Amino acid sequence: MQRGIAPCGPVDALEFEVDAVRSRRLLRVAAVIVAAAFAAAPAGCGRDTETARPYGASQAHIGESLAVLGWNMSVANLRFVSGNVLIDIDAAAAAPSDPSAARAKPADLRFGLYGALAHPIETSGFGSCDRVQGADLSSVQPLSSPSPERVSGTVCLGPISDQAQVRGVYVYSPRDRIAGTTVAYPAAFPVGLPATNINDTGLVVSTTSVEAWRANGTQLTPAALGDPTAFSGKGYMLLGLRADAVAAEYRDESARRGGPMMLLAAPTLPPPGLDPACSAYGDSVLVLPDASLDAVQVNASLCTQGEINTAVLYATVSVIGTHAAVWTKAGEP
Q1: Are residues 80 and 157 in the same domain?
Q2: 168 lies in the same domain as 60
Q3: Quick one: what percent of the chain has pLDDT higher than 90?
Q4: Where is the domain boundary, 124, 142, 172?
Q5: Which residues pair with 166 in a beta bridge?
Q6: Which of 11, 53, 171, 222 has the CA that lies 20 to 30 A from 211?
Q7: For the ranges 20-24, 183-187, 308-312, which has the lowest average pLDDT?
Q8: Parent domain of 157
């Protein structure tokens, strides 16, 4: 036996086994540390591979771009001016070389404030800053479409007094409708819309107020139903509506559907309509409340207008699935 070299006996075998066990333990510890590091990474790091979808709507932060309604759209520079929210929009057609590609018309893009608001605040993008009062917007470039493949400019939303509740903005199109999701209900004066069955759409929609007028400004009362001359010409009706749902159920149904629901009142007329209230409230509202709330509860007012019999006595409110996108402030989930 060569001097200086210990024999390969039981002691050497035991030391080798201890070293092997120690190595395996170190590898397992390293794997756990790496997994924990990925689990603790901010959600924003994974935004490229798995975009958040509150109630089925695509989500990004202010300043980022999203693909929505056939457009690659970014929202930037959210600021408050004279009690209104201003945002800058820059959108390019997702498939400019394909004339058959589905894309919302620029005039149909409708924007709203996202957050825990007392009631929705929405506006059509075009002409939105014309209604802002008490502010110098001479330096603002209103939203426009310089070419069929481009939409850019500023959108004005408001007025709003509780600015702390504004977490971001959203966009949708009342003309974008997910196939097989439309349920229409009659909403006749003076009753409005009776409470709907939650099994129809996942929402309970009910009427909180009903008011109707002739085009000349004469308000209608239930007694007018017996007057054959009261319902001639044009008129309009303002419906106060409330939409309720269990947040978890509405979230799951919206995810399966591919987007949230919207309420759509008909008939309607293009702006400016028969009364400023119709321009202010519009004929549609997106049911997209703050996703952090425990319940879905949206209180909105919608306008029906046109030939008075159709607009007041034969109006409808439809609940329809649609596609939408929401941009939130940096640091907001």
Answers
A1: yes
A2: yes
A3: 72
A4: 172
A5: 115
A6: 171
A7: 20-24
A8: 54-172
